[in-house]
Design brief:
The protein is α+β, with helices and mostly antiparallel strands and 113 residues long. The chain has one domain: HIT-like (HIT family, subunit A), CATH 3.30.428.10. It is 21% helix and 21% strand. Strand 2 and strand 3 form a beta hairpin. The longest helix has 17 residues. It starts with a helix and ends in a 9-residue tail after the last strand. Bound molecules: guanosine-5'-monophosphate and zinc ion. The site of guanosine-5'-monophosphate has 12 residues, from loops.
């Protein structure tokens, strides 16, 4: 399968990994939009949030916990950080392997653009 994030998970494309276990991998975004911009991805290929099933419930929870752990390690637990899944191109998804953006280190406006 020709998927960028599957290739990063497999180690075929280098990335600055910040966390990994048997189910998820986290790495710095190549084009950060904030001082902290990490992507948490499942090792298994899931194209969009629309493809998540009840079998993935624990995996999605683990992705969110990994995000909070990474943010805390970087000192953002109290200062605040944002987690985002973009779903489909209309919402900004450009890589079709689900990924949780973990963003922090600058003021984050709401509502988002
Ligand atoms: P999306 O737009 O799908 O929500 O987010 C995809 C993210 O992947 C973008 O923030 C983009 O900068 C990042 N990205 C794209 N290609 C690469 C890459 O080769 N390596 C890394 N580390 N991040 C990438
Ligand atoms: Zn993939």
């Amino acid at each position: 399968m020709d998927c960028l994030f599957c290739r990063i998970v497999a180690g075929e494309i280098p990335a600055a990994r910040v966390f990994e276990n048997d189910r998820v991998v986290a790495f710095d975004d190549i084009a950060p939009i904030a001082p902290m911009h990490v992507l948490v991805v499942p090792r298994t290929h899931i194209a969009t949030l629309n493809d998540v099933t009840p079998d993935h419930d624990a995996l999605i929870g683990e992705m969110l916990r990994a995000a909070a752990t990474i943010a805390a390690e970087r000192g953002y637990a109290e200062r605040g950080f944002r987690t985002v899944f973009n779903c489909q191109a209309g919402a900004g998804q450009s890589v079709f392997h689900i990924h949780l953006h973990v963003i922090g280190g600058r003021p984050l406006a709401w509502p988002p653009g």
